């Protein structure tokens, strides 16, 4: 039973690493709002980015989704094996 608990913790760690990696990728893309520039007229002050962002695209974030899927699969396999 001890190895099952270790595998569940490993799966949880994989899920956590996947989530943190995905968050880090979004945050490293740059600032979410631009400071007001001289000569630029903006209609509304907003934290929304000017460009079209795809925060959950599989193409850009496949390592994060892979880690999350691997962790979930590991937890599922261990729970089905012991249950």
Structural class, please? mainly alpha
- State the end-to-end CA separation: 11 Å
Q: What is the gyration radius calculated from CA atoms?
A: 20 Å
* Overall mean confidence score, pLDDT: 80
Q: So how many helices?
A: 2
Q: pLDDT below 50 for ≥5 consecutive residues: which ranges?
A: none
* Approximate shape: elongated
Instruction: State the helical fraction.
Output: 55-70%
Compute the number of strand runs: 0
Largest sheet: none
In terms of quaternary structure, what is this? single chain
How much of the sequence is in beta strands? Answer: under 5%
H/E element sequence: HH
Explain what you see:
The chain has a domain at 1-28 and 60-83. α1 (2-28) packs antiparallel against α2 (62-82). It is mostly helical and 83 residues long. The chain has two helices and no strands. The model has no long low-confidence stretch (mean pLDDT 80). It starts with a helix and ends with a helix.
Index terms:
83 residues; elongated; 2 helices; mainly alpha
Short summary:
With 83 residues, the chain is mainly alpha-helical. The chain is built from two helices and no strands.
Note the topology.
Layout: H1 2-28, H2 62-82
């Amino acid at each position: 039973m001890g190895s099952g608990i270790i595998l569940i913790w490993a799966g949880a760690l994989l899920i956590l690493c996947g989530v943190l990696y995905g968050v880090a990728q979004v945050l490293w893309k740059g600032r979410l709002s631009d400071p007001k520039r001289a000569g630029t007229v903006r209609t509304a002050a907003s934290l929304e980015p000017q460009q079209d962002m795809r925060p959950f695209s599989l193409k850009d974030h496949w390592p994060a989704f892979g880690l999350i899927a691997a962790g979930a699969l590991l937890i599922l396999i261990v729970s089905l094996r012991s249950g």
